[in-house]
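Let us work through a complete example step by step.
Step 1: write down the sequence.
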Amino acid sequence: MTSTVERNSSLHRKVSFRRSDIAANFPDRRDSSRRKKTLLGKLSSAVQDFVADEEEVKLRLATICIHESVIGTMEKIADSFEIVHAALTNLRSQNAKLNETWNIYVRYQMMKQMIKDVLKLNEESSKILFIPQQDPGEVPLAYAQRLVNVINADKKASLDSSHLDPKKTNELKDKFDGVSIEEINEENNILHSDLFKMAKRYLNLRSLVNGLQQDYTAAKGYPFFPRYNMLRAMINDLMRSPVFIELCAEDMTQNAQTRRTK
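Step 2: predict the structure and record it as tokens.
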């Protein structure tokens, strides 16, 4: 019952899309290897590995690899989210400048350029991720696990505990020294939940871009005045969408917090 409550609370936890916040949500273990630089620390680690059952050691290492793989996946989505976010934020700021001129021909060119700048994202496949949608009936955990495999498909061998080189294995052991497998599993559950929410938010932003792409392509065959109105409607519809409004509200909150900390 307790695990169910904790799982439900993690599903409603606020998730940051800033890359620097992802790993920071969990204890910093970057310097934990210092404990093993002493002779006593190395001897203690060697004794622990010797006493532990071989299957237990493999299971622990596999659990650690899952932890690191999910964090790596979240960081990649965060990078792509930031690129899409910046493009949509730029569209909003450029839209505010439309009222600076009453020349509809200038406005027309400005709106075309605003939309094209956003649509460039669909051409930059090397910079942003194209991730699959959640399948009907696919539970959040299964979807998050599938995303890890899809996004890291080109580096699958490095994520498999059975293919790790000795140096990487020792690095991971050092990093999680003193952390129980139960604690790592608990963090993994939270990480998968965070990954699911990040993916859904990212796909919502991508849907705005894809919808804009379809509308812009469909309007190309129209003459100037109808197309002017269509471009204007595209921008207004995008900025009035719940996804975009939520994004703007988060920006305002983040800016307010930044000003308070200064």
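Step 3: interpret the result. Residues 54-96 form the longest helix (43 residues).
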